[in-house]
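Give me the fold.
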Amino acid sequence: MSGDTDTVPPDCFYLGVDGGGSKTLAIVVDAHGNEHGRAVAGSANYSAVGLERAVAHVLAAAEEAARAAGTCLPLAAAWLGLAGVDRPADHTILLPHLSSLANAVHLTNDAELLLSALPGQAGVVLIAGTGSIAVGRSSRGATTRAGGWGHILGDEGSGYDIGRRALVAATRFADGRGEPTLLLPRILRAWHLTEANELISHVYYDEDKAAIARLAPLVLQAAREDDHAARRIVRRAAIELALAAVTVGNRLAYRAAPLPIALGGSLLLQDAGFRADVLRAISRHHLLGDIAVVEQPAFSAAQAAIALAAP
């Protein structure tokens, strides 16, 4: 990466933006897909922070990334993936404010950015972090999704789901209603608590979903140590994530064809064993095609944006 390019015309550069609920990352690449600049700003979810702030964050990140690349806006093409872009109305609201970023602008939900890592941007995206969702696109452009309902209505297989189930297993053991498990002492230690009844105030005081989701690695480790309760939670999570991916693949008519899949989110990126469990569960229903583990969706989106500018 370099920010010392000498006044290169903006139509030589391409932009990828990953705008999530907590931060927005913009990356600028050249026509060969090499990174030249990146920048971070605040949330791009206009449903959460409002239209004006969300747009300002996207513009700020894009402008700074372009400046780091030694150029200016508008660039040749951009793929923008923003949280909260789920309906045609969202495009209608946002696109007029963002069309100045590039000569060609492709706006999608942030989850769809991972499609940029698959050939033809077609296949299934499976994301498992604090929440979970599967989205997909066919080679003909049809799109569909499963999951993404949030921690009350869904998010099965997510970090939050795994953490919550671990807390339930821990409290059942504390009561004598459930089997012995390593999860209770390890959760207490992780949260610097001494007694099980302290979990009540710790969980309900601010209802921090991220804190509960951060218990997931602890559960995965306990499962590897053959803790029965942890193994059951992890197995269920893998099956639920696979079900979401398979459901999307079936809707897109991949039943008789290898299923291309892109994986993202901290759970699937950081734990190779759990990732293998999920892929194994998917393979029981589908022949797997291309598999992409996408660590930087904004980067792969910027590279995919090169094709958007092609005549």
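DSSP finds 13 helices and ten strands in the chain.
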